[in-house]
Amino acid sequence: MSGVSATRVEDDEPAVAPAEPSAPTPAEGAPSAPAETTRPAVPERDAGDDAPADGGDGPGDASGDGSDGPGDGAGDGSDGPGDGATPGEPDDRGDPAADDAEKRSTEDVLLLKLFGARRLGLDTAPRARMWGWIGTAVVTLLAAALRLWHLGQPRALIFDETYYVKYAYSLLRSGFEARWPDNPDPGFISGNMDTYLQEPDYVVHPPLGKWMIALGMRLGGAENIWAWRISTAVVGIIAVYLVIRVSRRLFGSTAIGVLAGLFMAVDGEAIAHSRTSLLDNFVMFWGLVAFCFIVLDREQARRRLAARAAAIIDAGGEIGKYGPRLGWRWYRFFAAVSLGLMCGTKWSGIYFIAVFGLLSVAWDATARRSIGVKRWWEDAILVDGIPAALIMLPTALVAYLATWWGWFRNPHSYMRQWAEQNPGQGVSWLPDSLRSFWQYHTQMWQFHNGLDAPHPYQANPVGWMLQWRPTSFYYQTVPGGTGGCSASSCSEAITSLGNPLLWWAGALAAAIALVWLFIARDWRATAVLAGIVAGWLPWFAYMHRTIFTFYSIVFTPWVMMAVAYVIALLVEETAGDRVASRRVKIGIAVFVAAVVGVAAFFYPIWSAMPISYDYWHAHMWLPSWI
């Protein structure tokens, strides 16, 4: 998504030096003339930060946008340290500009209030932009190497590839998901692929993920096994890139953004899914794209709010009960499209629509409160919330329906003629095509809600964050001297097991983020928890059916961002203590090195490398992993 990196919503705004302002509180009113608005005092917390304020390149600049630290109201920067500073108070950093009584516009003051110094300072210096792109490129290339190396191995239909790859092929050839004869996999793998029957099969997931698999087969040749998986591999690589770019915006730091992407790059769930053509990696991708758009929308909306509020103040008015309107929100619209595509891959995307929609409106509410709107909660509901619902829900629905275009177009699709064959049944007032469509969805819902067939790798969602019962996608014994096996016999395995250090740290990080959300009301904690809540918690309502740990790939990016968030907190909270800061940075370096080392150790069982049985068994740290 180029908008995350190349399209910078702040490009049309004046660059602002990274210093924390103190906008007037609602009770005090707002300045009426920008000429009197001088540089506010720098908060003590920022003054003690030894990192470059340009969003620099080391762990020392790991804090967020500078507006939502401890004590910051609702995380919007409205009540943080330094809020009571008097305009014109000298800057205790000894900035030469302060000696010249540098003037700031009203809009600049509001921007600093809404974003904080660090976020506005990110990428303002050429050196910072350069390191931002270098770090992004290095980690993304690492992710590509781990996902593309020997992508055609193993030469087998792995786990549920037996459904999705063959369905994708029949979609490509006939336009509908066809039934297959008994035991078609050996022939399909050897190149005898056109054995599907000329009748539709009953499938229980929407078609977009299978169309994405089919695209890779179309481009790479369906006879090439790597082509079955190239789409999910590319999606996995792009996901790492997106995690880096959106995390930089969340935390106002290149270093923390690159760390979050590195964690995603070397995580076992992310690697295993990127090398296996299941649907869940596509679900994760569209959810992450939507999240990036939601974050971009937050920034664009706050810039518009600052500009329009400043225009009112500069004209001699004041911000009263209600604030200015923000106009059409393209990023929010694109987020809704992405969420519709997410649902068009698997229905679990519907929970992300609810969570991300509420998150976006909550951010609007805190922004309005921050600039002094007296009835900010009412304003946010009427001006932001209701329009958001009226735009996002229909848009997501239309995008979802669009993923079914092949089903509507092809009369041979499963249940496409149900209405004609069952007159008077179903939702009778709907047109025949939609009546068939609704009946098909009713059957899909009954299947998903009632699935309770026992499976050796089914797992209670309680243990997902700890990777208590990972899913074995593939296991094969290889005789010695064949297939690259140099031992008497070898094991080839693909196990959807997250990097243990990252997921165990992620479970702790999610708990810390939740606590910090209540203590400090930090908007960044809300952001990283949102994806975990949307992707994990709904499954607790489905513990009666068969579910698997590998579903957790959908919220994996936010687990990685949660770990990065806690690292950012550690750096921020020790920034004023040189000894403590050094210890924290050493600890971070040791942790990152351990994570990369564990990834190197586990990579063979994420990628089906032939290894000795003893070496495979050495990876089974818990009995439940076997």
From TrEMBL:
Q: Which family does it belong to?
A: Belongs to the glycosyltransferase 39 family.
Q: What is the membrane topology noted in the UniProt record heading this document?
A: Multi-pass membrane protein
Q: Does the keyword Transferase apply?
A: yes
Which of UniProt's keywords are assigned here?
Answer: Cell membrane, Glycosyltransferase, Membrane, Transferase, Transmembrane, Transmembrane helix
Kindly list the GO CC terms recorded for this protein: endomembrane system; plasma membrane
The pathway noted for it is: Protein modification; protein glycosylation
> What InterPro entries has UniProt attached to this entry?
ArnT-like_N, PMT-like, PMT_4TMC
> Where does the record place the Protein O-mannosyl-transferase C-terminal four TM domain?
434-625
Biased region (Basic and acidic residues) positions are 90-104
Q: Name one GO molecular function term.
A: dolichyl-phosphate-mannose-protein mannosyltransferase activity
Disordered: region residues = 1-104
Q: Gly residues compositional bias: what residue ranges?
A: 55-85
Stated name of the protein: Polyprenol-phosphate-mannose--protein mannosyltransferase
The protein's role, per its UniProt record: Protein O-mannosyltransferase that catalyzes the transfer of a single mannose residue from a polyprenol phospho-mannosyl lipidic donor to the hydroxyl group of selected serine and threonine residues in acceptor proteins.
Localization recorded for this chain is: Cell membrane; Endomembrane system
Which enzyme class, named as a word?
A: transferase
